[in-house]
Amino acid sequence: MRYLHTMVRVENLELALSFYCGALGLIEHARNDYPSGRFTLVFLAAPEDVKNAKELRSPLLELTHNWDIEKFDEGRNFGHLAFEVDDIYSSCERLIKNGVTINRPPRDGRMAFVRSPENISIELLQSGDALPATEPWVSMKNEGTW
Fold first, then answer.
1. In the chain, which ranges are E strands?
2. pLDDT in tens, 17-42
3. Catalytic machinery residues
4. Domain count, the chain
5. 17 in a structural domain
6. What is the pTM of this model?
7. Cα torsion at 19, 146, 137, 85 (round to 10°)?
């Protein structure tokens, strides 16, 4: 058995791609429109996983966009997506510059949480050992839920 992907339903595909690709840094791996079913599937991969994704060896994030207007409840009961990052501080800085709220700042140099436009909780984990605790992260308070 092999883990394939996590599927997240999105209301606004362009807004979702702006978050996942523009702010978070994932790369669009494949996109398929299904006119008869009135939906689009977009598969995303982390930059370090792109080569393996092409060989269908890395897990992917599947964004499912139903063309007909549909309102989804908050995805907190989903749990969260988790991504390992090379530098948690620079990752959080990039997200802030893209208008993303850091719900749980990386005060410990190890872990942070943000939310997607659909309120999917996303955990960022520092690769390897935690980075030294530093400002402004140490003093930053939690904002909202994560």
1. 5-9, 27-34, 39-45, 60-66, 80-85, 102-104, 111-115, 121-126
2. 999 999 999 999 999 999 999 999 99
3. 123
4. 2
5. yes
6. 0.74
7. -50
